[in-house]
From TrEMBL:
<feature type="domain" description="CNNM transmembrane">
    <location>
        <begin position="2"/>
        <end position="201"/>
    </location>
</feature>
<keyword id="KW-0472">Membrane</keyword>
<protein>
    <submittedName>
        <fullName>DUF21 domain-containing protein</fullName>
    </submittedName>
</protein>
<feature type="transmembrane region" description="Helical">
    <location>
        <begin position="95"/>
        <end position="113"/>
    </location>
</feature>
<keyword id="KW-0812">Transmembrane</keyword>
<dbReference type="GO" id="GO:0050660">
    <property type="term" value="F:flavin adenine dinucleotide binding"/>
</dbReference>
<dbReference type="InterPro" id="IPR016169">
    <property type="entry name" value="FAD-bd_PCMH_sub2"/>
</dbReference>
<dbReference type="InterPro" id="IPR000644">
    <property type="entry name" value="CBS_dom"/>
</dbReference>
<dbReference type="InterPro" id="IPR044751">
    <property type="entry name" value="Ion_transp-like_CBS"/>
</dbReference>
<feature type="transmembrane region" description="Helical">
    <location>
        <begin position="6"/>
        <end position="33"/>
    </location>
</feature>
<keyword id="KW-0677">Repeat</keyword>
<feature type="transmembrane region" description="Helical">
    <location>
        <begin position="144"/>
        <end position="161"/>
    </location>
</feature>
<comment type="similarity">
    <text>Belongs to the UPF0053 family.</text>
</comment>
<dbReference type="InterPro" id="IPR005170">
    <property type="entry name" value="Transptr-assoc_dom"/>
</dbReference>
<keyword id="KW-0129">CBS domain</keyword>
<feature type="domain" description="CBS">
    <location>
        <begin position="278"/>
        <end position="335"/>
    </location>
</feature>
<dbReference type="InterPro" id="IPR046342">
    <property type="entry name" value="CBS_dom_sf"/>
</dbReference>
């Protein structure tokens, strides 16, 4: 080394630190790279993304290559600085100690922290091009990597660790997927984000949460006179109606309203038998069926309307395919003018809202930004009756989740009208 000019030695030191920084930056960038984005680029035919994924599938070999190279370059840099110090100042212990401390500082700042911060800041931009360098280096270093990994695997076995046992487990839980969507920021439009979040909820929401309750179900009683039945059909806003005999728990079929109204153009007298012949088999659904499962059942059975029953077979309400679709993408249609009116509620200028007692709690929470509990009763009437443990004499007020709820009208053993007051801002 005595014959090598100092400038050559300093140039070599610079190159050693640069190479060490390259491997440190590449390691951090590869580990921080978004694998889903890389897979997307790979599907589009990106050769760099394909190479990067190939390396990440061999994490043990990749880390061995990076750490071996990093260690060798750092050791060579330390040895070179020590040699330069001895040449310049002789065998002085203080000089050697100071030179060792100096090179350690250089390596920490320029070959470790700075490159790793850069790698973590721009993971994909750095991982893609560096993978094209690391792959051939990995092929050239196979014997060295194999030799080092031989001792590593023996050490891991000694501690009972199976290498790579979780390396390829990249499956995400629904909650993790939800977090990814929520953190999508400006990359996902707000409407798309809302739809995706609603899709996750389909596994936790049952048909009972979105059904039209029994008291609001429009149905036909076959025991009524035919003239009265036809009058109801001509003023009906629905395309299909449940049909029962005597009381609603005895549903005998589903009637297609348009086909029934077409009978009016016939010369023959319309009878109950004509209507009964047009009925299709009713489709019954247990009330605790999950929405996503029911969506699949609708698709498999080519159905669009189902009657929801409880464990005793009593009718609780009905749900349609449109109800489930609206739960996913938001409301896009209304069946009746009354439904449109009911759906348009919100806070007024005084921070109050007047609601029907049969309004679903989920709709109240969504539209008014409240947090009424959803694990019990499904309507305002049910929640208040459960809290009060009796049918109240209006008016009465109580606080639920920081919201003042006032019972305005009670009729037929049910709370008919409720006034909500907006919670004070915290």
């Amino acid at each position: 080394m005595d014959t090598v000019p100092f400038w050559v030695q300093f140039l070599a030191l610079f190159l050693l630190i640069l190479c060490s920084a390259f491997f440190a930056m590449a390691e951090t960038a590869l580990m921080a790279a978004n694998r889903y984005r890389l897979r997307h680029e790979a599907k589009r035919g990106s050769r760099k993304a394909i190479t990067t994924l190939w390396l990440l599938e061999r994490t043990d070999k990749l880390l061995s290559l990076v750490l071996i190279a990093n260690t060798l370059f750092n050791a060579a840099a330390t040895a070179l600085v020590t040699s330069i110090a001895i040449q310049a100042f002789g065998h002085d212990d203080n000089v050697i100690t100071l030179s060792t401390g100096g090179v350690a500082f250089l390596l920490i700042v320029f070959a470790e922290i700075s490159p790793k911060v850069i790698g973590a800041t721009f993971p994909e931009k750095i991982a893609l091009p560096t993978s094209m360098v690391l792959k051939p280096l990995m092929s050239l270093s196979k014997p060295v990597i194999w030799f080092v990994n031989l001792f590593v695997s023996m050490l891991l076995k000694l501690f009972g660790i199976k290498a790579g046992s979780h390396a390829h487990d990249t499956r995400l839980s629904p909650e993790e997927l939800r977090s990814i969507v929520l953190e999508g920021g400006n990359f996902i439009p707000q409407k798309h984000k809302s739809i995706l979040l609603n899709l996750f909820d389909l596994e936790t929401i049952s048909v009972e949460d979105i059904m039209t309750p029994r008291s609001q179900v429009e149905a036909l009683d076959l025991e009524m006179p035919v003239a009265e039945i036809m009058r109801e059909l001509t003023t009906c806003y629905h395309n299909k109606l449940p049909v029962y005999e005597g009381e609603i728990n005895r549903i005998v079929g589903i009637l297609h309203v348009r086909k029934a109204v077409a009978l009016l153009n016939q010369e023959d007298e319309i009878t109950h038998q004509h209507l009964r012949a047009m009925l299709t088999t009713p489709y019954f659904i247990p009330r605790d069926t999950r929405l996503f499962t029911q969506l699949q059942y609708f698709q498999e059975n080519k159905e669009r309307l189902g009657i929801i029953v409880d464990e005793y077979g009593e009718v609780q309400g009905l749900v349609t395919l449109d109800d489930i679709i609206e739960e996913m993408i938001g409301e896009f249609t209304t069946s009746t003018p009354s439904a449109a009116k009911a759906d348009s509620f919100g806070w007024d200028a005084q921070g109050e809202c007047l609601l029907d007692g049969a309004t679903p709690l989920r709709d109240v929470n969504k539209r008014l930004g409240l947090n009424f509990p959803l694990d019990g009763p499904k309507t305002l009437n049910g929640m208040l009756l459960e809290l009060l443990q009796e049918i109240p004499d209006a008016p009465i007020s109580l606080k639920v989740e920081q919201c003042i709820v006032e019972v305005v009208q009670v009729h037929d053993q049910a709370i008919k009208v409720v006034k909500l007051r907006r919670p004070a801002a915290r």
